[in-house]
Design a protein that fits this description.
homodimer, 736 residues, alpha/beta, Chitobiase, domain 2, TIM Barrel, nine-stranded mixed β-sheet, 25 strands, Beta_hexosaminidase_sua/sub (chains A, B), Hex-like_dom2 (chains A, B), hydrolase (chains A, B), glycosidase (chains A, B)
Chain lengths: 736, 736
């Protein structure tokens, strides 16, 4: 990404490579790096302009702007900022007068803008004007306006659709232009992220910038698993809003699995009636959600996972299964043995009718048929199936699944749909039109592309595993060194974050999706070289708060869950501990405690944020302090030192404050050891900090202290202390 | 309400009058009051039992139990408490095996119980057993069980239906008995409120109590106005859940008004299409909500407000109006001039068809037809209407409205429905079957009863006016001195809290309804003498937190709204100020700032809690301190003194911390004066406290200080400082 100044008061070109956290400018003296110690007048001016662009918080500027995903290109002008006031109005192109989607998007935009600024706009509805680029030159005298210029309604279901847009901001005019209204939708989100405060004029404002933007990948998705835990309509809707905010464009809706069939079928009502606990989406709700998503430029791709993960189908229709049945909904996680019998012709007529019904609900050209984790025991045990395989020359289960997939793909083709499947379906016999979604590894994506299949990457984007945003952010679908030709690279459509729902309820799901998914959204939208992790986190914190506007609960349910744990009593000490706890990452949680679909998701581990922000900020402090220390400056930088000591002192004292609550509320018993551990390692951390600062080589750590550090790594109640590693770093002790 | 001990270790009878905040016991020495200075062994035992009942928090007991509404009768046994563990199971009566409502309620109960305790119950679904009262005597060896005994499915639409229940808790058995499942629903909520922690056994528990309960009034309602600001389905649903928690049983749904027609009509589609901004309830959604409410024992009474408040009807069907039209939806508050033309026969055929359609959606026997605030200008100006009145001997507008109401009442009667209307409809000519809802004053309710009409009280329960819970709590529909015979009193069915929505959005509505409505719910359910305000507030705080379980945002959106105001930066100083702000009460807000339906509801006033809990706690501190002071003990009670000084010192320093944010964010400009005022009055308060403590008569207040106190009473940004009055009290200055 390149940020440059179109014009500057001091007539030099600014080339700023913010992605790597450094700032350069080109002057007569050549390309020079700007450091914070610079103090020339020119530099002051430069810094005076830059923060308005919101790329970095500059000390004292009080600016907290951020864009996420970062646009392709941002440039600054030396115009005054655009000041928002109650006279502000919004103009849509009269050619597009019948584009209701654009009009409604404009109204939502106005309402959010008014909500964030408290401004009572005189014009609450957009006006219409000529669809031509207005002249900035002749504009200065008029009321502050946002003019939208757009040529046509975009087709969000067309993979190659133009999503680009541009923004020009001058002192009293903003022009947002795009070929399609999809571009406009993206541009409006960018404008909301650009909203700033002009500190000199006591006004909300937009900085004078020029933006060109378009996505790197055309498939930017979020999978929500509504089968394992049902997610009500409002949960889906607010997540669609959030997706639009970070420019994601595909909701992949996992609707069936062993634990529940979550969509009403009028053709086969026993699917939802017997295949669920009563929680399923009615067809009217499905239509509403599809329309809600389309309003925001988002496609909805349903997933009907087959032939494995199929128990919920079989409860009502056991005749489709490979075993005699009867079947029951599974309250357990993991992979069920129950699979469809692909040798039965009745299965295909059943699915033909079912899928035909589903196509009336889901207009998207793609249908996901799952295909992952197919257990073959029932196939092996069935004589009919074994005979069928012999008769049809199918030498193993994988070939039988390919046979199944081929038949499904042709059913879908007759319906005008394209099939997607998880990477297990990759097989020489399946048609090239099928799209492969890679979950088991990057390799399967590469392999699919090399074999001529289009693909979507999900491996590395499994947000249910509670890994850091950084991990996902660094997972580029097409890293520079990727072993694919340009043509093969074109087959990689993009990626999808996957929110599997074994361990989330409607109460916690937002906190497992957001804000980390915004980092994945940036990976899929922004140029490859937008990759500075620290800056990503800076912006993620800001965007995370803005996302609350949609009713998301990822921040606000945290305190609420802590309040419930202590029955409404004071949460401060509990919060100090849980602030530095994270759920055990990966698949570890599922292997503990005998979880079922009935288990409570209200304990400390469920409140604990993945990629805990407090722990992350401590990590950066430790990095800085160790850096200072290694260059002999640990005793000179007071700020970092004071902040670290404050953190550690707070933790050192916390167990004393929390122990009463732990004794009082049985549900907190499981975190008692974590609370004790935190206090212990904080004491060790304080000692380590003093040693580094004083460079006193006579201070050593005892074996007891080393054991304490080691003990504190252990998880309790499926949570672990996310600051122990960093405290160990401070001790400079070898980490086993 | 009487609380007594069935048996006690020390064989005396305990009669505790907790409603008045005092505790007595009867012993050989007669009735004695228990004070906190008592320390006999017997007393220790007594106190050891009492807190388990959750009526009061006894120092050091760590108990925070509370019930709201308070049951009719609670008694304590000396049994051990019932300890909850993973073996806990729930048994429903096999006679009621086909009562799906009861089964689903039981499952929700188990899920909430598991959610609050973190327990992984082995039995996630209830079992079935013989429908007979189990013997406590033979139970002791079995697994901990909750047995439900219930004779039949109740009819929530039958006004006289039995809602009573009883609970008996012994060490390993809880029996919840009721005639109808409606009683069981109430009892389950009581059990959740009774859930306690046994501090000696490190276990969640129920105290050994015996409860008999039934409502004082049979109509306990909440009105939600979904017209002025539309409220999405999930908002309605979570409020229904909360209503059930505090045993309210009527959702009065205000669906039409000048600002929007919020229900789909297939008979007259222009009603919702042209009469709304696109936000309306689809008929499928209406059916879902009615079913959702019925599941929780709650009736849904729709309101179609006529003949005034009618603009939204007339946009699509101007021919029904008294003026020629055309009509437009009103974005303004206040009373519109537009009224129906009651002289047109076509109006009645229209309404007949419309109401017939509505009866297919709303099974409740009651339909609310509004009838309030009918402006008569258009009637006066229409020659046809004037002629009609002459022809029909209608001497004034009120008689014309009575003519209208009579015709509507007969249409409804043919549909098998009973009409309800606001008190303006009271007129000698209307049928006695009609129910009068009193909003303008208690008097109209009395009048209605004296004239033989059944009535519902809403005057005094207008929660949109941002008054204190105390105000509503003290508003008894039938105070002891009421001038009504016993028969007339029987006509008073109950009351309804009214949530008019001029100044609430889906984001803020919960905080205007809860927790204050729980106090109204108690007024309508509990015995009249349950009236101790301080104890009500103690319990309200606890119940308020428990209500969050339903996804209500009344607590958690507070911080979220503050975060938005400061764009995600630190909210602590802002919170310190807003904690003691309240929205201007009454109708004042509507007269300021030119509010329309588009105006932002995201400013400080919208975040500020009505009846601010922090201000209320300060008020009680001041009460205590002044009490101590007046008896010359102000210098001896350190706790109260320290707490007051802590509050005042925090406020004194706060403006210094907050001013940067105020300068930075334009939306905070309007509270700048409040922030300055708080600091100023805090300084005065500190001086006053020192004077009282030291009894130093030479300390006086200057005119400047008196002016500052006066200035600080003024509202800014539609908010006022709720602690100024109490600080004035501390100064002992005369209050003008």
């Amino acid at each position: 990404m390149i940020v440059y100044c179109r014009s500057l008061r001091h007539s030099f070109l600014l080339a700023s490579f913010l992605a790597c956290g450094r700032l350069f400018f080109a002057s007569e003296r050549g390309l020079q790096e700007i450091t914070s110690s610079e103090s020339s007048n020119a530099m002051q001016d430069l810094l005076g302009i830059l923060p308005k662009a919101g790329h970095r918080e500059i000390q004292g500027s009080n600016m907290t702007l951020a864009m996420m995903p970062m646009p392709l290109q941002v440039s600054f002008t030396n115009d005054d900022p655009f000041l928002l006031d109650k006279d502000f109005y919004m103009e849509l192109p009269e050619d597009d007068e019948f584009n209701e989607r654009l009009l409604r998007a404009a109204k939502r935009f106005l309402s959010r803008l008014s909500g964030r600024t408290g401004l009572f706009f005189e014009n609450n509805s957009p006006t219409y004007g000529k669809n031509e680029t207005p002249s900035f030159f002749h504009w200065s005298k008029k009321l502050p306006a946002l003019k939208i210029r757009c040529r046509r309604k975009g087709d969000e279901m067309e993979l190659e659709e133009d999503e680009s847009y541009s923004i020009e901001i001058a002192s009293t005019l903003v022009v947002l232009e795009a070929d399609t209204d999809l571009g406009i939708l993206h541009g409006l989100e960018t404008l909301l992220q650009l909203l700033s405060v002009d500190p000199f004029r006591q006004s909300y404002s937009w900085p004078a910038v020029s933006i060109r933007d378009k996505p790197r990948f055309r498939w930017r998705g979020l999978l929500i698993d509504a089968s394992r835990h049902f997610m009500p309509v409002d949960v889906i809707q607010r997540n669609i809003d959030a997706m639009a905010t970070v420019k994601l464009n595909v909701l992949h809706w996992h609707l069936t699995d062993d634990q529940g069939f979550r969509i009403e079928s009028k053709a086969y009502p026993k699917l939802h009636e017997r295949g669920s606990d009563g929680n399923y989406y009615k067809q009217t709700e499905i239509k509403d959600i599809v329309a809600y998503a389309a309003e925001r430029g988002i496609r909805v791709v349903p997933e009907f996972d087959l032939p494995g993960h199929a128990t919920a189908w079989l409860v009502g229709y056991p005749e489709l299964g490979s075993a005699p049945g009867p079947y029951e909904l599974s309250p357990y996680w993991g992979i069920s043995e129950h699979v469809m019998d692909p040798t039965k012709d009745t299965l295909y007529s059943f699915l033909e009718k079912f899928l035909h019904e589903m196509t009336t609900l889901f207009p998207d050209p793609f249908v996901h048929m799952g295909g992952d984790e197919v257990k073959i025991n029932e196939w092996n045990e069935s004589a009919t199936i074994q005979n069928f395989m012999v008769d049809h020359n199918l030498s193993n289960a994988h070939e039988l699944q390919a046979y199944f997939n081929n038949r499904i793909a042709s059913i879908l083709k007759r319906e005008g749909k394209i099939m997607i499947g998880w990477d297990e379906i990759l097989h020489p016999n399946i048609p090239k039109s099928i799209i492969i979604q890679s979950w088991r590894g990057h390799d399967s994506m590469i392999q699919a592309a090399q074999q001529g299949y289009r693909s979507i990457l999900s491996n590395g984007y499994y947000i249910d595993l509670c890994l850091s945003a950084e991990t996902h952010y660094q997972n580029d679908p097409l890293p520079s060194a990727v072993n694919l030709t340009r043509e093969e690279q074109e087959l990689v459509l993009g990626g999808e974050a996957t929110m599997w729902s074994e361990f989330v309820s409607p109460e916690t799901i937002d906190s497992r999706i957001w804000p980390r998914t915004a980092a994945i959204a940036e990976r899929l939208w922004s140029p490859q070289n937008v990759s500075d992790v620290k800056d990503m986190y800076r912006r993620l914190d800001i965007i995370g708060t803005q996302l609350e506007e949609h009713g998301l609960t990822h921040i606000k349910n945290y305190d609420m869950m802590l309040r419930r744990l202590v029955q409404g009593s004071d949460i401060s000490a509990l919060k100090t501990l849980v602030d530095v706890l994270e759920p055990v990452p990966g698949y570890e949680r599922g292997q503990q405690l005998g979880y079922t679909s009935f288990s409570p998701l209200t304990r400390v581990v469920d409140a604990a944020p993945p990629d805990a922000p407090v722990a992350r900020r401590f990590r950066y402090l430790v990095d800085d302090f160790l850096q200072l220390s290694s260059t002999g400056r640990a005793d000179t930088n007071r700020t970092t030192y004071i902040e670290i000591v404050e953190c550690l002192s707070l933790w050192k004292e916390n167990h004393g404050k929390l122990s009463t609550s732990i004794e009082r509320f049985p549900v907190l018993q499981e975190i008692k050891q974590l609370s004790v551990d935190l206090a212990e390692v904080a004491v060790i951390g304080l000692k380590a900090v003093e040693r580094l600062r004083s460079m006193n080589k006579r201070i050593h750590f005892s074996n007891a202290e080393r054991r304490a550090l080691n003990r504190a790594r252990k998880a309790h109640g499926q949570s672990f202390l996310a600051v122990v590693f960093d405290i160990r770093l401070l001790t400079l002790e070898k980490i086993p």
